Amino acid sequence: MDNRTRLMNETISIDGWIGEFDADGKAKVHVDVVFRQGSFGDDPNSPIRFKVALTRAEIVVRVPDNEPINVVKRSIDRTVDSLQATQSVQHSKRSAFKRNFKAMFSKLGIGADAEASASVEAKKETDLQYQRNVTNFIAQHFTTPDSHPAWEFSTNTQLSKHLTGAPWDPLEQSRMKVRRSDGDAPKSGSVSVVIEVRCAREDILILDLQEKDPDQQRLFKTKKNSALRIAAAEQLIKEELFKAGFLEVPDLSEKHARLLIADKIILEEED
Prior knowledge:
- This protein is mostly beta strands.
- The chain has helices at residues 102-107, 112-116, 214-220, 226-244, and strands at 5-7, 12-18, 26-35, 38-40, 48-54, 56-62, 69-72, 84-100, 119-135, 137-143, 149-155, 176-180, 192-200, 204-211, 258-267.
- The model is unreliable at 114-121 (pLDDT under 50).
């Protein structure tokens, strides 16, 4: 990892670039973020291991105050066309109906006993199968309190219990354009934009939490120790964030605590 990137391990992949500035001093900003499951506890000294995934996250694109560029507001992609998957749906429809043959039997001269049993019930079952396009994410654009463009993503529970994959095509779907403040095209690599990924503690799923010591595993899994297990995992997440360079990590026992879990400084693309 280069020194322009900070991550909460492999839970997130983050990259991006600023396109070439045109004659009007404008350039597109491309953001490449991929959500995955991350593993914690690989260190031999860690007593536990577990996986982490996100159910919701915010991607913020921020132009530093000292940069000679501004966001072109009308260029911001405010309607997110998330990548789609095809889902097969099978639906069974059962219908029941009755037919009364009394009138027909009477006309044919058939007896009353037969008439009494002449009402029959039939059932019909129909299988319908079709395909529909669904997206991996429920997405919306918003502006942060400090006026930066941002996009919120939550899980589409039809497909997954947590965020997985890329929310957009980073090559074809730029997030916005920036413009040189004085209208001139800057020299290559002379400006930067910051991509941030944020979430709340309640957006972090802790999965497959295990004690590495087999003798402690049964005790570790008891309901009585569930709070202790989660606290141990939260402490390990906090330590990993410190190692990544995030020095202001909140108390993770507070479910509404806000976290910065990834960021990257991106520069103008070089040929």
